[in-house]
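Aim 2 progress update. The chain analyzed this quarter is reproduced below.
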Amino acid sequence: MMTIIVVVIVSGALVIGAVWGIYGNLSERLEGFLVAMAGGALLVSALLELINPALNQNSIPITLAMVFAGAITFTLLDYLVKKKWGSQSGGGLLAAITLDGIPENLALGVALIGASPLSVAALSGSILLSNLPEAAGGAKEMSNDTNSKKKVLWLWVGTALILSAAALIGNYVLADVSKEYLNYIKCFAGGAVVASLALEVFPKSFQKDKYWTGVATTIGLVLALYLNTLGE
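Predicted structure tokens:
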């Protein structure tokens, strides 16, 4: 039951954020601030929860190679998505959330096996903190282009369903997979996160919110660090 509740909360944040971005009153400055805050949370998640465990437990060369592979894969996917939907579209951010979210939610599902309530709160909280503002900003940009609001909303609902399925697969199917291989999956996700921060998150935020981006990023980072301490 805890697994289902966490999956609904984390993936539901994508839908709630998308509805807010499409139909709500979200100013450009607030959008930039929220996206930067999400970037700070993602930075913590990438380093502490996705990459660092493998550096401590796995082969360092393979770990770093997987991080690089994730970054290269996201960069190529982001390029293709922008070519299709236009350089100013939120589609790149949707690709970032999907590419990062699948292995991240696989890891979330595995982490829920036998986890304490505080550990669950730390991991799911950091993901939720990044999903909500990212979905709001990305959906708003996509709806401002040639896409209909209904089409954009269904794209985000579909993404939420995919990520929910990934978490459930992680919880029920990958329970017996060795920690070594799970760590490599997380590292691939971490590389994708780093690339998405450089290409999508921080440039977008600075364009809309200018120098408040630094403050917002730090707020997200501090909140995510605090959530991470709850799981220790």
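The radius of gyration is 17 Å. The longest helix spans residues 179-209. These observations will guide the mutagenesis experiments scheduled for the next reporting period.
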